[in-house]
Amino acid sequence: MSGAAPPRVLVLNGPNLGRLGSREPDVYGSTSYAGLVERCTELGRELGLEVEVRETNDEGEMIRWLHEAADASLPVVLNPAAFTHYSYGMRDAAAQRTAPLIEVHISNPHAREEFRHTSVVAAVASGTIAGFGIGSYELALRALAGDRPHS
Ligand code: DQA
Q: What's a BP term from Gene Ontology annotated to this protein (predicted)?
């Protein structure tokens, strides 16, 4: 058996995502946050990745996590939640990435209210996956595990 540790990936979630399951299930589905954590870590195991899932309602904490990812060259799956639409501080932290960063959304923000049509993060992300429910995270993890080019 090889002793090499699997590559680490951070899955970072912004405000209100800890309330998945009870939060507007018609928009975000019935999977709880605990269920999301389980699906991401299990899929990570299948893909040979060590996935760590975090959630915060605090913009400063999210920015510190993005610095941590940049310093350690960790790939990130980022659901910035409402920060997506206005947080230039988070956007500037994401811009410092030293590894792929995939923006994900459970819903399709472009099919919703106008304020959700703007993402301040999209331009500094490797790519964006939106509208596939919890499956958006799975697609992002599969993209990170694959050998597709990421800029
Ligand atoms: C979201 C979409 C955002 O507009 C919203 O503020 C969220 C969740 C999504 O995953 O669909 O909190 O990022």
A: aromatic amino acid family biosynthetic process
- In the reported structure, the alpha carbon of residue 4 is separated from the centroid of ligand 1 by a whole-number distance in angstroms of 36
Cα–ligand 1 centroid distance for 109 (angstroms): 7
128, β-bridge pairs: 103
Segment 34-73, tens digit of pLDDT: 999 999 999 999 999 999 999 999 999 999 999 999 999 9
Residue nearest to atom 12 of ligand 1 (CA): 81
What is the reported pTM?
A: 0.95
| Domains identified in the chain and CATH numbers | 8-145 (3.40.50.9100)
Contacts for 52 with CB less than 8 Å, ≥ 6 apart: 8, 9, 10, 11, 41
CB-CB neighbours of 96 under 10 Å? 14
Residue 36 burial (CB < 10 Å; 0-12/13-18/19+)?
A: buried
Q: Which amino acid is at 124?
A: V
Sign of CA dihedral 90, 95, 97, 103: positive
